[in-house]
Amino acid sequence: PYYVLQAISLACRRTPSCKRGDVLNLAGSDITEWWDKVVLGLATGLEILRDDCKVMLPKWLPYQTMLAPLAAVLARTGIPRNAEAGAQREKLKRWFWCAVLGQAYESAPNSKSAKDVTELLAWLAGGAAPESVEAFRFDPRALREVTPRQRSIYRGVINLILRGGARDFHTQAVITGKLMAEHGIDDHHVFPAALLERRGIAPARVRDCVLNRTLIARATNQMISDRAPSDYLEEIRRTTGFPFEAVLASHGLPASANSALITDDYEGFLAWRQ
User: Fold this and answer.
1) Which of 83, 104, 171, 208 has the highest count of CB atoms within 10 angstroms of its CB?
2) Is the peptide bond between 203 and the residue preceding it cis, with omega within 30 degrees of 0?
């Protein structure tokens, strides 16, 4: 509920602001005027994140603090009923990915929210793109350092895997929020951590980096245990009629017979996936 009040504070002011004092000083008339608009904006924003950016469950939302500016912008602009809605959606998606992979909300989220609302409204009206979009730069080598501790980029990459149409290794069904909840699908190691530790791969962040993670069902992960990819993947490959290569490719994993994954070449695998 606090994010709704923050979004109202961002939407109702000529100069957007959502610090604690701003929220506490909201007038009753502000809340009455903007509540329904902001709730509709928040609902629409969550649909965009779920359907287009594949944030399937709350745990995979990179920044909760991005919800308030997203809801405020959609409340201010309204939801167009023509092709302009699609153009607006594309810009909001671009802002989402740039902010997530650029770690824009890592510090001072209230100030960042106010800045983004101002800049997003100008962009959607035909002006320049926000600074977080224009200044976006990303070095793929950084993915070697990204573990679950770096929640923004880590969760963003998991969302990108889902956006690629990732399929369950067991049923080959496209992974949805419902499937994740029902089958205990979560992020797990592709090369098991225990296997890499036995091989002397260190430090731990090299084993745990997002390049070595994907979404795997609980039962499949138990089957994998600490086995090498060449071992457990061969078991899956032998299943008659199972689209082995298509399922691996849906996770952004190499599927050819001589790939670094199939030959248990961890460094080669990291380089390929990076």
Assistant:
1) 104
2) yes
Tens-place pLDDT, residues 194-231: 999 999 998 999 999 999 999 999 999 999 999 999 99
CA 188, distance to chain mean position in Å, is 16
- Asked whether the beta carbons of 210 and 191 are under 8 A apart, the reply is no
pLDDT of residue 23: 97
Write the CB contacts of 203 (distance below 8 Å, at least 6 apart in sequence). Answer: none
What sign does the dihedral 16-20-25-30 (CA atoms) show? positive
Reported confidence tier of residue 44, pLDDT bands at 50, 70, 90: very high
Tell me which amino acid residue 26 is: L
Inter-residue contact 11 to 75 (CB < 8 Å):
yes
End-to-end CA distance of the chain: 39
- The rounded mean pLDDT for the chain is 95
Tokens of 185: 């699908």
What are φ and ψ of residue 216, in 5° steps?
-135, 140
Cα–Cα distances (Å) from 205 to 151, 198, 212, 216, 261, in that order, read 14, 15, 10, 20, 19
Find the helix or strand (DSSP H, E) in which 64 lies: none
pLDDT, tens digit (0-9, with 9 covering 90-100), for 221-268: 999 999 999 999 998 989 899 999 999 999 999 988 899 999 999 999
Helix (H) or strand (E) holding 157: helix 151-163
The token pair that represents 55 in the structure block: 């944030």
